[in-house]
């Protein structure tokens, strides 16, 4: 079975990664969650990245705020897809985190979702796995159909409400 690593630079980032974990698990995919800091535990970050593929991981989500180097540090030491999840900060509202993740040097790509975009990070990881695993791709198609149905129902309800005014 496929496995996604969800790592965060600090336990305080858990509320941001929780939606990623929930959506991953709702698709029946295993998520291992860890706190590993690019700055405070760099040896552990390197070791995790180097050994991730041999431990069965296929995608890694890295949540971090401020300097937000975790995704880049991990991506530098693995060939697995890495998704950066910028965490909102008090100083710049997460723009600092976003720019730190997006502005990677040539040759070290990190896919990036929006600030505090945990659910999208989880869905992107699942989409990456869906290329290899048809059952995940099928569940993603069903997920998107349900989203469309919800929007259509909301649209109909709003049009009825407006018509009654």
Quick tags:
48% helix, five-stranded parallel beta sheet, alpha/beta, globular, 165 residues, 18% strand, Rossmann fold
Summarize the topology.
Blueprint: E1 3-8, H1 14-26, E2 30-35, H2 42-51, E3 57-65, H3 70-75, E4 82-87, H4 95-102, E5 111-112, H5 118-130, H6 134-163
Parallel strand pairs: 1-2, 1-3, 3-4, 4-5
Describe it for me?
This protein has helices at residues 14-26, 42-51, 70-75, 95-102, 118-130, 134-163; strands at residues 3-8, 30-35, 57-65, 82-87, 111-112. Helices cover 48% and strands 18% of the residues. α5 (118-130) crosses α6 (134-163). The chain has two domains: 3-132, Rossmann fold, CATH 3.40.50.1970; 136-165. By secondary structure, the chain is of the alpha/beta class. It has a five-stranded parallel beta sheet. It has six helices and five strands, in the order βαβαβαβαβαα.
> In the CATH hierarchy, what is the class of the largest domain?
Alpha Beta
> Using only CA atoms, what is the Rg?
18 Å
pLDDT under 50 segments (min length 5)?
A: none
Helix content: 40-55%
Distance between the termini: 53 Å
The CATH architecture category of the largest domain equals 3-Layer(aba) Sandwich
In short:
By secondary structure, this protein is an alpha/beta fold.
């Amino acid at each position: 079975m496929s496995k996604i690593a969800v790592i965060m630079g600090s336990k305080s980032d858990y509320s941001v990664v929780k939606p990623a974990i929930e959506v991953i698990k709702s698709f029946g995919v295993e998520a291992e969650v860890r706190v590993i800091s690019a700055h405070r535990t760099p040896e552990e970050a390197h070791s995790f990245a180097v050994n991730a593929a041999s431990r069965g991981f296929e995608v890694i989500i890295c949540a971090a705020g401020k300097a937000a180097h975790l995704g880049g540090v991990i991506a530098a030491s693995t060939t697995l897809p890495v998704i950066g999840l910028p965490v909102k900060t008090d100083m710049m509202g997460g723009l600092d985190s976003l720019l730190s993740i997006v502005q990677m040097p040539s040759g070290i790509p990190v896919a990036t979702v929006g600030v505090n975009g945990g659910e999208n990070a989880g869905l992107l990881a699942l989409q990456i796995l869906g290329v290899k695993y048809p059952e995940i791709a099928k569940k993603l198609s069903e997920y998107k159909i349900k989203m469309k149905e919800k929007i259509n129902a909301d649209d109909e309800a709003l049009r009825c409400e407006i018509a009654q005014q």
